[in-house]
Design brief:
Length: 78
């Protein structure tokens, strides 16, 4: 995941959740802001220490997570 070099994990920051460049801004916050119809410019206005690439990588990381395959097992026969 070298293309996601701005996504960091540190157990001392936000409980180890995926964050932006070691800051206390989580990927989930960014994704929720986008889901609530904020655009990149509005997010940066609200959080001026973020950069457009931080937001793009947050979305790439979320997309990567969503590609996970889920296998539903058959219930055990009684």
């Amino acid at each position: 995941m070298s293309e996601l070099d701005r996504i960091t994990f540190d157990s001392a920051v936000m409980g180890g959740r995926a964050c932006i460049r070691g800051m206390r801004i989580t990927v989930s916050l960014i994704v929720n802001l986008i889901a609530d119809n904020m655009n990149i410019e509005e997010i940066i206005e609200e959080y001026p220490y973020l950069e457009p690439e931080d937001i793009r990588q947050s979305l790439r990381y979320a997309a990567w997570l969503a590609e996970e395959s889920v296998y539903i097992s058959e219930p055990a026969a009684a």
